[in-house]
Structure formats: C-alpha cells, structure tokens
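Hello, quick one for you while I still have it in my head. Could you read through the record and tell me how the tokens relate to the sequence? No rush at all, and the record is pasted right below.
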Amino acid sequence: YKIQSEEVVHLDGLVVSTPLKLRGIGSALLEDFANRMVSQGVKVIKTHFFLRDFCSKRGFKVDRAWGGLVRFLDPNYGELNETEFSPVEPEQNSTEK
C-alpha cells in the first residue's frame, strides 16, 4: 500500500495462494488492513478497478470523484468532503439597476 495523505491510502492489491482461496483469508486480510489503517487515522482506502468484484462485496464503491474504488473508513468523510470534489457552478450574470 501507499500512503497518499494522512487520511488516504492506496491499496495495490491482496495476494492469496490458489490452494488457500475461498476460505475467507482475503477478506480477513482486508479487514485487518482496514482496522490497522483506522487505528492510524486513515479515513479512506482507494484501490484499482481490477479488484472491483472482490472489493465491492467488502464495502468499496466506485466513486468518480476519487477516481476509482474507495472504502470510507469514516462514513462521514465522503459526505464531508464531497464539495471538495464537486464541480463549481458558474455564477449567473446579473445586471444591477
């Protein structure tokens, strides 16, 4: 993983050996990682689209503003920072009389 800021990390992936797949090990690794990040003050985990099926079942969602799959470890973080990523509406011209 790579720390992108105090509150955001990017997870490059998880690897589980083929004979050990479908035993919940990948889910356990992801949850352990998320818990460790929460304890360090991280609020968002980002990852690649190629992990979409696995991650979407574990709390990640596609978020265009963030440019990929994200999981908000603090459920209020995405809502609080949504305006930061929203396009600014142009002001309408008004004529003064």
Observations:
- The mean pLDDT is 83.
- The first strand starts at residue 2 and ends at 3.
- The first helix runs from residue 25 to 39.
- The radius of gyration is 18 Å.
